[in-house]
Amino acid sequence: MSRPILVVEHILSANDRLAEANRARLDAARVFAVNLMASPGAGKTSLILQTIGALKGRWRIAVVEGDLASTIDADRIAAEGVPSVQIATGGECHLDAAMIQSGLDRLPLDEVDLLIVENVGNLVCPAEFRLGVHRNVLIASVPEGDDKPYKYPPMYRGVDAVILNKIDVLSAFDFNMEYFRRGIEALNPGAAFFPLSCKTGEGVDRWLDWLEKEMRTYREG
Known about the structure:
Layout: H1 3-29, E1 32-38, H2 44-55, E2 61-67, H3 72-78, E3 84-88, H4 97-105, E4 114-118, E5 135-141, H5 148-151, H6 153-157, E6 161-165, H7 177-187, E7 192-195, H8 204-220
Parallel strand pairs: 1-4, 1-5, 2-3, 2-4, 5-6, 6-7
């Protein structure tokens, strides 16, 4: 019964060592990295596009795009004129530190200030694998329901910020904002929280202000 646990611990330990190497490499290049996690369709790519559009005049941005197979999202990001790397996981439900390492090998890190990692759409596996980034951000969306913090506690427990996307359709869904916030606070007191709509732009400025503040704090440290 203990053998599978030992195997999992070995895999995670090896991943953690690579994650530490990734962090050291990013720090040496003064690149601030953010890992975006969410279920499929929550709006990861939409948020990245909003972020690029607002910040690329002030910061040099690059993207590592993780997906099971297609390059659809990576192509949309590349069209914005920022360096991007597509990592096809071949069926794996998450990015891991080795995949990020391969992505870093293909990016001009000396020409990057902000690296955005778009993880594979999943609310289970990504929580277990450290990548070496500086901040982890979870994107939820109104259509998914207000019970996700209660159903997927590991995802909400280990992030620095939670974004609630698609607030423009709140009136169409039975979504209790207070219940959702209580779930986050119970698991992760003090986590930053940003209700927003990538479609209308409402609330996106608060997310951008937080991100830029985190970047400046990192660069001044």
